[in-house]
Design goal:
The complex is a heterodimer of chains A (248) and B (309).
Chain A (H helix, E strand, L loop, with lengths): L1 E6 L1 E3 L21 E3 L1 H15 L5 E8 L4 H10 L3 E6 L5 H15 L3 E5 L10 H9 L2 E12 L2 E8 L2 E8 L2 E5 L11 H7 L4 E4 L12 E7 L8 E3 L2 H11 L4
Parallel strand pairs in A: 1-4, 1-6, 4-5, 5-11, 6-10, 7-10
Antiparallel strand pairs in A: 2-3, 7-8, 8-9
Helix pairs in contact in A: 2-5, 3-4
Chain B lengths: L1 E5 L9 H13 L2 E8 L3 H8 L6 E6 L8 H12 L4 E5 L2 H13 L4 E5 L1 E4 L2 E6 L4 E7 L4 E5 L15 E4 L9 E8 L12 E5 L10 H10 L2 E4 L1 H5 L20 E5 L5 H4 L7 E6 L12 E4 L2 H11 L1
Parallel strand pairs in B: 1-2, 1-4, 2-3, 3-10, 4-9, 5-9, 12-13, 12-14, 14-15, 15-16
Antiparallel strand pairs in B: 6-7, 7-8
Helix pairs in contact in B: 3-4, 5-8
The chains are: A alpha/beta (248), B alpha/beta (309).
């Protein structure tokens, strides 16, 4: 079974982002970029399925700017077999889902794994939209994935606890943090990844219109919290909560 | 304009997040219809009809909707959604699961987790783990939106008298089935809606030590949360996690105990009205957002607070 994994290049999660002075967006120049953490988990899960003999080939895809090739190489170093870059910077989840659907139609994967959300836009939409467009079942926020007998059993992290669903294949799984602990790429694998195939495509190759539906009017920093105080004793803390903040 | 709000419910009653979503719908303006899709969900539909400001309740009662499977609900919402200007759902795990599916079927973008309504087509939403607020305008004919419940007040659960209308369409996509669930049992208030939240982090040391937080929480009528470090270490189940990837809370009082205050944790609680931090490391980033900080050993401080309240 072929597994398709979608990944995204985002600002490294440890970076404290700054909003641009002209309010047009977040400062991305000279900021460390990385593979979205949920996408790393998706790649790891695909590699583990291959190691178990469930997956035969892992194709990793990204939709992004030319330099997103770096993140595809990272995924290749982690164990993906080949990569596809669709050059479309800043595409919205619906457009990304349409491109992934077109690629899935060509590649015919048995399973598609994506992260539950990208930590830049925090949308949490692409996997669900792809599943809708392809008519696939979806196992979102997955913490356990078992593939057996032409079906996938997915345990999902839901508000009150865990829920398990069974999906007909092909299906889309979106990864939650607890699905696995991603491995690090070793130096020899990073070297080998440079020789693995990486195809570059454009949205037009798939006949997909990527024009945005949403217009960002402005981006602002959140309201600052007023500076707090340090209290010396528990008595002082409780007194302040009772009489000053009046919250208990 | 007519707005369709998808109810979060357990078939017998309406969950709180639905009430916050109705308030967001009122801010957009227009007639508000509520869809209750479930199995044996008459009780939830009756409760929805009593919400102030709701003019009609649509009840889609079918075994196909019993466990809120996105494959089936997506088809239903996409079919009904064609007749509305806005389709809103709370940004719960259910809402996040089915609504993007319906949006894609309607060929429209989704606007996720709005925190403010600017106008009928313009909304504010947090991005980058809440470190920036984007104002976005939609050009789609149907605005499909998830609503961050903590950003809106709850609509009154009583006072309304909407008619309940059954909708026939039973969609079963046949792609998925429910196998089972394992829900965490708790007598304390629900984390997302609690007025007071007491959270523990790695500094708690082990799961057993959470007892002192439970004990304080029970005295305060509070819910208990946790940081990812505490969940990953196996101290508590993951549905207690507060943060970018867990629950977003905005209580009156948030007490962070033994939590350093990583960006991802702050994303889930920094809209709380009053934040208290108890940490022995006075350099911990949590103190930069705390209204009241106490530098000290949590194992002394937490029982001492409990005695005083």
């Amino acid at each position: 079974m072929k597994v398709l994994v979608a990944v995204k290049r985002v600002v490294d999660y440890n970076v404290k982002v700054r909003v641009k002075a002209d309010k047009t967006g977040v400062e991305l120049a000279n900021v460390k970029m990385a593979l979205n953490p949920f996408c790393e988990i998706a790649v790891e899960e695909a590699v583990r399925l291959k190691e178990k003999g469930v997956a035969t080939e892992i194709v990793v895809v990204t939709v992004g700017a030319t330099n997103a090739q770096e993140q595809l190489r990272t995924a290749l170093a982690l164990g993906a077999d080949r990569a596809i870059l669709v050059e479309a910077d800043g595409a919205e989840p619906l457009a990304v889902a349409k491109l992934l659907k077109a690629i899935a139609d060509q590649e015919q994967p048995g399973l598609i794994i994506v992260g539950k959300q990208a930590i830049d836009d925090d949308n949490n939409q692409t996997g669900q939209m792809l599943a809708a467009l392809g008519g696939y079942g979806q196992g979102t926020f997955a913490s356990v994935v078992k593939v057996e007998g032409g079906k996938a059993q997915v345990t999902r992290e839901v508000d009150g606890g865990l829920q398990t669903v069974e999906l007909a294949l092909p299906a889309v799984v979106t990864t939650d943090l607890r699905l696995n602990e991603p491995r690090y790429a070793s130096l020899p694998n990073i070297m080998k990844a440079k020789k693995k195939p990486l195809d570059i495509k454009s949205p037009a190759d798939f006949g997909v219109d990527v024009s945005p539906r949403l217009k960002t009017l402005k981006v602002e920093p959140p309201a600052e919290r007023k500076a707090g105080i340090k209290v010396k004793t528990v008595e002082e803390l409780v007194e302040k909560l009772k009489n000053e903040a009046k919250v208990i | 304009m007519t707005i369709l709000v998808i109810a979060e419910h357990d078939n017998a009653s309406i969950k709180g997040a639905t009430l916050n979503t109705v308030t967001a719908a009122q801010a957009i303006g227009g007639d508000i219809h509520v869809l209750v899709a479930g199995a044996g969900a008459q009780g939830a539909a009756d409760a929805a009809a009593k919400i102030a400001g709701v003019s009609k309740v649509l009840l889609a009662d079918s075994a196909a909707y019993g466990h809120q499977l996105a494959e089936n609900l997506g088809l239903l919402i996409a079919e009904l959604g064609k007749g509305y200007s806005h389709v809103l759902a709370p940004a719960t795990t259910n809402g996040k699961n089915y609504l993007p599916r319906a949006a894609a079927l309607l060929d429209v973008a989704q606007i996720s987790e709005i925190s403010k309504v600017v106008s009928a087509d313009t909304f504010e939403r947090p991005i980058y783990a809440g470190n920036a607020i984007a104002t976005v305008q939609s050009s789609d004919s149907i605005k499909v939106i998830t609503v961050r419940p903590t950003a809106f007040d709850a609509a009154a659960a009583t006072g309304g008298s909407a008619a309940v209308e059954a909708v026939g369409a039973a969609h079963d996509a046949g792609k998925s089935s429910f196998v089972g669930e394992e829900l965490a049992k708790s007598d304390r208030p629900e984390l997302a809606g609690a007025k007071i939240v007491v959270s523990g982090g790695r500094g708690m040391g082990n799961g057993d030590n959470f007892k002192i937080l439970y004990s304080l929480a029970d005295k305060l009528g509070a819910a208990v949360g946790a940081s990812r470090a505490a969940v990953d270490a196996g101290f508590v189940p993951n549905d207690m996690q507060v943060g970018q990837t867990g629950k977003v809370v905005a209580p009156q009082l948030y007490v962070a105990v033994g939590i350093s205050g990583a960006i991802q944790h702050l994303a889930g609680m920094k809209d709380s009205k009053v934040i208290v931090a108890i940490n022995k490391d006075e350099e911990a980033p949590i103190f930069s957002v705390a209204d009241y900080g106490l530098v000290g050993d949590l194992f002394d401080a937490v029982p001492a607070i409990e005695k005083l309240v």
